What we know:
By secondary structure, the chain is mainly alpha-helical. The chain folds into two domains: 1-55, no CATH class; 66-221, no CATH class. 39% of the residues lie in helices and 9% in strands. It has helices at residues 2-9, 24-32, 67-73, 87-96, 101-108, 114-128, 138-149, 164-181, 212-215, and strands at 16-20, 39-43, 52-55, 193-195, 200-202. The strands form two sheets. It has a three-stranded mixed beta sheet with strand order 1-2-3, with helices on one face. A hairpin with an 8-residue loop joins strand 2 and strand 3. Helix 5 (101-108) runs antiparallel to helix 6 and helix 6 (114-128) crosses helix 8. It is globular, with a radius of gyration of 21 Å.
Amino acid sequence: MMLMQYLQSNTQYDYVRVVGEDIDLLVLLTALASTHSDYFFQKCGGGKTPDSYYSTTSFNHKFSNELLFIYAISGCDITSALFGQSKNKFISLFLKHEELLNSAATFLNPQATTEQVTEAGENVLVALHGGDPATQNLDELRYYSFDIAAAKTKFNLARLPPTTDAAQLHAMRSYHQVQTWLGNEKDPLKWDWMHTPSCLFPKKSEKDPAPESLLQCISYTCKTGCTNACGCR
């Protein structure tokens, strides 16, 4: 927050160096001050690792305008993350499907509605998991992916696409974070955060990950009590 306020008000210095350990700082500098070639980020090293230096033009990429969205939707310190989906995969996705830039634009729009945000977020996540946003939703893709995975001798359920409900929560919080970075105040309670006695806390999905009839069919081959080393964990 302090960095954003500084970027919005600073005009008196010709050279600025931001020192920190969190790569979020470089993302914010790149997205919000990319026209300032005299702004630099010094990432502190540790042990035998030297400090690294970056300018706001280091990320000379066609998606610089969408960087905040990509960083939030792919998972950061404040938003949830998708299992096994790296930021590089998101970049590759937008290189392959530039039509998804329309979805990114929704997250940059301060007037976007919750319906527009959740639809745009789902379109991106469907494409990320190999589906067609024009013909499939996440629940359909999740079922299709499970049907294929179940035929294998071993698979990881965590790699299935998220449910529509979970994806909507993720999209709403990602939008709120992008708007916060852009300096647009949004009520977090309207974007799937909730008050707790100590702080704001993300709302959890209220729907089961699968139909109850399917969950009842799950069984394990453990012959003794389950431990942390069990494959069913």
